[in-house]
Write a structure and sequence with these properties.
The chain is an alpha+beta fold. Helix content is 34%, strand content 28%. The chain has a three-stranded antiparallel beta sheet with strand order 1-2-3, with no helix packed on it.
C-alpha cells in the first residue's frame, strides 16, 4: 500500500429518507451503515458505483431509485470487489424523539 492508502477508512451513509430534516416526525427511525476498512477501498468500488449511476441516469445512488433487484445486484458486485480486503460493516438504528 502506498503511504496515502494506509490506516483505517470509514465510509458511512444514512438512510431513512429524512435528508436535511433529520428530526422530521414522518421519519421516526434513523439508520446509519458504515463500511470500515483497512486501507482505502474507493478505488475498488467507485467504478462500480459510477457505472450504476450512469446506467440509471443518477447523479448519486439511492436504494429506493434502484429498487430491490438493483440494490441486490449492486451489493453482490461490491462484495465481490472487496474480496481479499479487510473490512467490516457496522449498522446503527436509532429511534428518534421518544
Amino acid at each position: 500500500m502506498s503511504k496515502g492508502n494506509e490506516g483505517a477508512f470509514i465510509y458511512a451513509d444514512e438512510s431513512g429518507h429524512s435528508g436535511k430534516e433529520i428530526f422530521k416526525e414522518e421519519s421516526p427511525i434513523y439508520y446509519q451503515g458504515a463500511v470500515i476498512s483497512v486501507g482505502e477501498i474507493e478505488s475498488k468500488v467507485a467504478p462500480i458505483i459510477q457505472r450504476y449511476c450512469t446506467e440509471n441516469g443518477l447523479e448519486r445512488l439511492h436504494g429506493y431509485e434502484l429498487g430491490e433487484e438493483g440494490v441486490n445486484s449492486l451489493c453482490l458486485e461490491l462484495l465481490e470487489a472487496l474480496d481479499g480486503t479487510q473490512w467490516k460493516f457496522h449498522y446503527t438504528i436509532l429511534q428518534k424523539g421518544i
